[in-house]
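REVIEWER CHECKLIST
Item 1: Sequence provided? yes
Item 2: Single chain? yes
Item 3: Sequence as submitted:
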Amino acid sequence: MTVFAVEYVYAANSTETRNEVRPAHREWTGSLAQDGVIVASGPYGDGAGALLIFAASDEAALNSILKQDPFAAAGVIAGTRITEWSPVTGMLAGIAA
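Item 4: Structure as written out by the authors:
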């Protein structure tokens, strides 16, 4: 598996829609966490976006997963940055095989 850091930038004026869709989004992330696909995730403190750490076979597989996010379907994500990541120190070290 490859580890990817995914940064979401939320659309301007999307707070109300995010609040409505958040339960479905958290159910989606929770299910992926149980399956070991999401290693960690959570919003930034300023509310402008979020960071999600995924383990996926490749970027194409990751993009397929991201399309299933209820936030994506609701149109609240204005931008996504995907970066392959190799954690070498700390709790996440060694999760990529």
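Item 5: Key structural point noted by reviewer: The helical segments are 15-34, 59-66, 70-74.
Item 6: Recommendation: ____
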